[in-house]
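All the exercises in this workshop are built on plain-text protein records. Sequence and backbone structure share a record, each on its own labelled line. The structure tokens are whole numbers drawn from a learned vocabulary of backbone shapes. The record below serves as our worked example for the rest of this section.
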Amino acid sequence: MSPKSGKENKAHKPWGGRFSEATDPTVERFSASIHFDQVLAHHDIRGSRAQARMLGQAELISSDEVQELLAGLDQVAGEIADGRFPFDPALEDIHMNIETRLRVLIGPVAGKLHTGRSRNDQVATDLALFLRDVSLATQRGLLDLRGVLLERARENVDTVLPGYTHLQRAQPVRLAHHWLAHVETLGRDASRFRDARARINRCPLGAGAIAGSTLPLLREQTARELGFDAPTRNSMDTVASRDAALEYMAAAAISMVHLSRLAEELVLWSSAEFAFVELADAYSTGSSLMPQKKNPDVPEIVRGKSGRAIGNLVTLLTVVKGLPLTYNRDLQEDKEPLFDSVDTLRDSLEVMAGAIATLDVKRERMGEAAADPMLLATDLAEILVRAGVPFRDAHEVVGRIVGHVTRKQIDLRALTHADLQSFHEAFEAGADELLDLERSLESRSLAGGTARVRVEAALVEIGAELAAERGELERLEAQAEGGA
């Protein structure tokens, strides 16, 4: 319901007393944020409940007024949950929509809720609560995907495939080792959200518009009630800073880049040229023209969506880079890119977990590719090193051997003892005896290597880490639910 007169237009504005003219309708449309910031409704109501209780404790409102406010906020929360809430774009944002509805439901006492509070610290509080919750949810999504990769790794300790550098076959590795590489990457991503969540945990409520309040607000009380460690320390920094959102978005962009790299491998591996995996029908699509096609659309879309997360981060960095202290309306532009990054990462984690859990590993095809004797050329050089040949010399010798067999189009393993000695007298046997795929794998038993003993130890260690992380997340999730 759009106001029709200047008087009506000003009546619903929190600054209406200062102005004599109505806001132009184009300005209302341009500045409204309710179409996206209603995501914060739950957090806004949670912060308002804490505000009401604090005002009562500070004796700024009566206990009866506290109960009226809490009952009204419960009613508003119910309407929002049931989809009955009358959102009004003319009221600009979720904060004014809730406050205005509260006034309709309980009368003038609703105006006391904003005592000592500005929309500046209100928004900062909502955002902190939101970021704390979504950081936890993102950690859960990353944990679930790592759990899927760990399970696939356990199934594929004996599956061997070529490892690649420059997208060229390099050395043989166990598929389990490959999956676990992604587990490591995503584990670092999870730690970024865990660290960011810790830095969010100071409460903005009570910082006011810029300089705090002359009223006896109990900031420590609202901080405790909302599950924060303490109030924020500087009112100006509190209302002007968006680095918590930036930190989440930076971590999200990095995570999406890592998911994009994993997605790229699924795209490559599912092609006929590789044929290392086949994606399940549930995570693929077909062609509207070519009936034989099975397209890896899910990983392709994830790969494409990484650009959104990167762009969202750049958007907010650009918004804040030139802002003087303290609050400027530019900061309204923080929410759309933030919310989009949250949704994009959440959905990408979910579909990637499903795609990897259900894909079919073509072990025989991987094994055929790993059997390429050229993958063992480095082993041949290291055999010379063990015989006392300097590595640079050994590298050159094996390079000449590789050039020879490539030009002659013969199998490296076909070189006899005499053939190898014609390149260097330190060779003690023929290539067929010196080069063995399983021995090559097992000889890589240094920490972090692809030998069975190292891979199996990593599976145990990572399994224990994920179990511990799962337990801690469940504790935090229960704590968050209890404080909702």
